[in-house]
Design brief:
Strand content: 15-25%
Largest sheet: 7 strands, parallel
Radius of gyration: 19 Å
Number of helices: 9
Number of domains: 1
Low-confidence stretches: none
Order of helices and strands: EHEEHEHEHEEHEEEHEEHEEHH
């Protein structure tokens, strides 16, 4: 039996490539990437690639994807312009949802961020605003034409092997593995809902199997474990699991960021109603991340 097509944006990214590895067993993956000639994580030939320079209308017409998972994002952390960030965070998903409706796709999964909660970090305000605007547009378009179910996830704090070195967890994992003498940190009392990347993938896979159960055109819900840990506990656990007894975690040496989010915890009601729960404890996820991260 021929596989149905699934369209994934950011297919060469952290979450995207983990989705490809798992969902490629069930679906024919059409992966949208910035440059098919400059892949960081995917292997050539693993999926059907298309670039942002191609006509997405033609891609949808050819492959008729049953579902779309939008993981691509721009944070605006580097010298990226605001228009280029809006292209990826707002314009692209809106265009994809309209194509999904036109070509009778059944499910559109958007990956949002807990950063949109509260005031948010000053240095990510542009990013947070763009993600909020994306959700508003998706809700509006979905409710106008109820032909494709939209599931808009607020993703909490994913971690695991293969993430960018600029991300906090990857940076800490590598620093701990190097047995750096000390790490200067904030007091570490801010709480985060850390979720191992394979648990994120299993939640998305379940959603692709259960979207028919949804009664409304647009559903916004959380994707996280439903539990939170302090940053101090997370890093102390990482150090313990690694077997590193040398590195000193110097909590309180740095101030909190302005508008620091002191608690972020998912309420994954939709997923839990479907029987989903995380398969990996914090210790298990950190051990796997340590073992699969090279320095």
């Amino acid at each position: 039996m021929e596989k149905q097509s699934l369209f994934i944006t950011g297919a060469d990214g952290f979450l995207g490539h983990h989705l490809v590895q798992q969902l490629g067993k069930t679906y024919h993956i059409i992966g949208l990437v910035r440059s098919p000639q400059n892949l960081k994580r995917l292997r050539t030939g693993q999926i059907t690639l298309c670039s942002t320079d191609e006509s997405l209308n033609e891609v949808f017409d050819k492959y008729r994807p049953v579902g779309i998972v939008h993981t691509a994002t721009k944070y605006g952390r580097t010298e990226e312009s605001v228009p280029s960030m809006l292209d990826v965070n707002v314009d692209l998903p809106v265009h994809l949802l309209e194509l999904s409706q036109k070509y009778n796709s059944k499910a559109f999964i958007n990956i949002g961020s807990f950063i949109t909660q509260g005031k948010g970090y000053n240095y990510l305000q542009d990013y947070a605003l763009s993600k909020k605007q994306c959700s508003e547009w998706l809700r509006l378009i979905a409710n106008k034409v109820n032909t494709c179910k939209v599931i808009d996830f607020t993703l909490y704090h994913p971690y695991g092997p293969g993430d960018s070195d600029s991300k906090f967890v990857t940076n800490m994992v590598k620093t701990i593995k190097k047995r750096t003498p000390f790490i200067d940190l904030t007091p570490g009392e801010q709480k985060r809902d850390f979720i191992y990347i394979k648990d994120v993938v299993s939640a998305i896979e379940l959603t692709l199997n259960r979207f028919d159960d949804l009664q409304t055109a647009y559903t916004q819900t959380d994707l996280g474990t439903g539990s939170s840990h302090t940053l101090r506990y997370f890093l102390e656990t990482l150090k313990e699991v690694s077997g590193n007894t040398e590195t000193e975690l110097r909590f309180g040496k740095l101030p909190y960021r302005e508008n620091e989010i002191m608690e972020a915890k998912a309420i994954p009601n939709l997923l839990t109603s479907w029987g989903w729960k995380p398969n990996y404890t914090l210790n298990q996820g950190l051990l796997r991340t340590l073992n699969q991260t090279s320095i």
